[in-house]
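Sequence design from tokenized structure. All designs in this work follow the same two-part layout: the structure record, then the generated sequence. An example of the structure record is given first.
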């Protein structure tokens, strides 16, 4: 079990996220663009700053700063959950 993160108001965080089974599912420039589309949609829904990002073939890096008391976990859950549902639908997976 992972211990909960201790977050500080006003801090920026380097967040990494791996693709399921560490597969190379983000190789296509099109799918990388789609991931960024979900990040942009999250910015419309949640207050945060995105300072930098890197989308590799099997994982992503984000430097993100939640604002106005928003939870980092809620932002990331929305981005990753909605992107995963979209990706699964496009590729016929569950």
């Amino acid at each position: 079990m992972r211990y909960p993160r201790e977050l500080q108001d006003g801090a920026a965080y380097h967040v990494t996220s791996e693709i399921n089974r560490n597969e190379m599912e983000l190789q296509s420039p099109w799918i990388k663009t789609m991931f960024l589309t979900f990040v942009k949609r999250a910015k419309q829904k949640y207050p945060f700053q995105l300072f930098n990002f890197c989308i590799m073939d099997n994982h992503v890096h984000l430097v993100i700063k939640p604002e106005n008391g928003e939870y980092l976990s809620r932002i990331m859950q929305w981005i990753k959950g909605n992107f995963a549902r979209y990706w699964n639908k496009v590729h016929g997976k569950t």
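The CA atoms of residues 41 and 86 lie 13 Å apart. We note this feature because it recurs in several other targets discussed in the main text.
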